[in-house]
């Protein structure tokens, strides 16, 4: 069973939140916006290719714009496995939260 | 200011250069989009800076992985494989020739490499081999590899240990040991009779040691049964090697409770205390069993020491030489003793000319020769396959062109051609293994090494594999570059000559000339070597060797009994004691004429009975003096007579009655200096030693009755050898019941002197033949290619009236010119290397100019045959067939 690193988890969540408009640049923008830290585009690419290899996301080419000089984007979407994974992580966290005394 | 519409171009190009094609679109798109947005937000310069920074952050393996999306990579590779296999299949004949040649050649190279590895790693698996030394004794003009005991054969157990114990007192010496294998000159080379209860065995090579624990410390043996402590803490213990244990007790020797049993060796009792793993064959001493006992049954022993850390051997030998009176009281005033020296363990196998060396040493010159010849074969293979693969792609230009049209880049074409070349060579892998499996035992037999040390191991595999891949790459690289860089149009255009350069001075002819030179050189060197071997075989040595056998007899009484009994056999012509010719030079000493001052140092002395002189058929008129009542005669050979007569200023004949003083430095009570001998007669020169040495002064002491005997010569009728031998054996067994009958032929002994040379000759011969075959095969391929590419030209020539023979002549002309150049180039090479080989012989033929020329002519003839054979196919075609294509 392949696990997820913190950055991988965050990016997977971002891809899910962007619903069909996730590609390298847009994800790095979203990361900056929601996490508040900057991340380089190359780091996003590497993480996404890793996620793809692990089978949590899938990709297809599409959506050329003039800003991109007519180049297509690689659009990433989460797979079912990715969705299940992220839910499992959440549940596991929740269980831990629940047993913290004085917080629940 | 005009707004830029583009991020910095150089950075963009850089990205395009390093980035994998299939990733480029998305990455570049993302970066451009980012640049565009940032330009709006932060301004052009900031956006540019960030763009450049981003490009550099992509400069990492992730973006280089050309084929990271494997789906794209595999189909292409699959296609390469498929096309390669189709091509290989399509040209079955061509492929078969290729494969056979490559298999033969590469296997030969691997064999040579294995052999060289075996020789060059002698003694290397002994731990800390470089800090182990053997002591050697310099005496007279020679180096003895053993140390003698203070009182020779009469040394007590305590005296035998003097040197070893003395050595251990030095701080520099960690430990020291001594031993004698029976298969050595000081071990007697006799076989041992071993009795195990009622079972009897014969042991060929036992190692006698009186310092077992220290032997174990210097040369650790792996005990499979028993312990070294038990085996070496006490005397009269025997340790067997696994090999002998298997041979004597069968495969299940482990289960037979052998340890602790008593054994009788030559009537002495031992206890079997251990069984050890076989010692490696590439070790300078071998043995089948160890006998640990108080006294070593010899007059000396091989003595080894291991240095402590950081100690220096020079200080050990220095101390030894200044302490000679304690270690060797005899040598203290002996002017002939030249001190003790030491040789490092790894150097022993390559030392030359030392006395009583245990195993034959290796001549480094021969090893280098093999290495060079092996490399030459490799070069021939490489040039062959470069030539052949260039030829092979000549009619595949259109395929390559088509690939370019479909988008193949030049590196893709190169990659494809390399894949094919490597694939073809790798096809040989199983065949090479099969061939090696059969060749290694035969080869080991020829070179007299143990198969096990050469047999399949990871070294063989990886060497074979890397040689094949390397050959593939090297042969594929030229066509890969040549075709890869050609433009599409040229690939589709007329057939081009893949070989650059002018008509005569081009790459292909360069390779061919190179091959021809090696072909002629190897052929002529082989020829000269075989001439020399024949010369040695046929040379009149000055004594009779036919029908002479010899064996060991170690006491005078037994010799007398044997002599009487053997002469009673009608087939036996004569018998004698000692004086077997055919050994390496030994016992060189100094001598001078009485009342002169010139001291010579090249004399050798020999002691033999009158019977031996007669057995060897040496012409000796003065031997009659023995029947006149003299007990011993002092004879000198013609060479000695001439040398001494010159000094004395008289004729050689006048030397009879004069006195020769041997070893004039030797101070003794009886004669003062040296030992005087009165010359009784002169014998003709004969080659007592190997033909590697010059004819040297030889002094013979001929006895009517030998006072000491160690070997016996018998000459018999050669008609019914087996019957005669059986009779001799029966007689022998009646008189000698301990020592097994171990007989040898003088002719074999003489042959053995040149074993190494003959071996090297045979090996070079085989390799040359192989090189010749490979070169001719390569040539056949090249001629086919040329014939193919000149089809139209030939067609037109024929239309214009040329006959087949004209065309063949035309073909041959170019190759004959190359051949001529090659013969000239190979002349000095062949002469140099063959005289280098001949240098080790004093009696030798001279390599002649015409020998090389003749070898060259033979090669030329072979080349002409191959060229004519291959070109004939093209010349025989009907012109219509080739011309109608256009």
Which features would summarize this protein structure in a list?
heterodimer; A: 104 residues; mainly alpha; Arc Repressor Mutant, subunit A; two-stranded antiparallel ribbon; 12% strand; elongated; B: 886 residues; alpha+beta; 14-stranded mixed beta sheet; 7-stranded mixed beta sheet
What does this structure look like?
The complex is a heterodimer of chains A (104) and B (886). Chain A is mainly α and 104 residues long. Chain A has a single domain, classed as Arc Repressor Mutant, subunit A (Orthogonal Bundle). Chain A contains four helices and two strands, in the order αααββα. The model of chain A has no long low-confidence stretch (mean pLDDT 87). Chain B is of the alpha+beta class and 886 residues long. Chain B folds into four domains: 9-64; 129-348, no CATH class; 364-536 and 754-883, no CATH class; 555-738, no CATH class. In chain B, 52% of the residues lie in helices and 16% in strands. Chain B has 31 helices and 25 strands. In chain B, strand 5 (192-196) and strand 6 (199-203) form a beta hairpin. In chain B, helix 15 (364-394) runs parallel beside helix 19 and helix 21 (507-538) runs antiparallel to helix 27. Chain B is globular. The interface between A and B is medium-sized, with 21 and 21 residues.
Secondary structure topology:
The complex is a heterodimer of chains A (104) and B (886).
Chain A (H helix, E strand, L loop, with lengths): L5 H13 L5 H12 L5 H14 L2 E6 L10 E6 L1 H19 L6
Antiparallel strand pairs in A: 1-2
Helix pairs in contact in A: 1-3, 2-3
Chain B lengths: L8 H10 L2 H22 L1 H14 L3 H4 L5 H21 L1 H29 L11 E8 L2 E3 L2 E2 L8 H4 L1 H7 L4 E9 L10 E5 L2 E5 L2 E4 L2 H7 L4 E4 L1 H5 L4 E5 H8 L12 E4 L2 E9 L12 E4 L7 E8 L5 H10 L1 H4 L9 E8 H4 L15 H31 L2 H9 L4 H38 L3 H4 L3 H27 L3 H5 L14 H32 L9 E5 L3 H12 L4 E6 L10 E6 L6 E10 H6 L16 E6 H11 L10 E10 L3 E7 L2 E3 L14 E6 L7 E6 L4 H15 L8 E2 H7 L2 H35 L1 H9 L4 H35 L10 H28 L2 H5 L3
Helix pairs in contact in B: 1-3, 2-3, 5-17, 6-15, 6-17, 6-19, 6-27, 15-19, 15-21, 15-27, 17-19, 21-27, 21-29, 21-30, 22-25, 27-30, 29-30
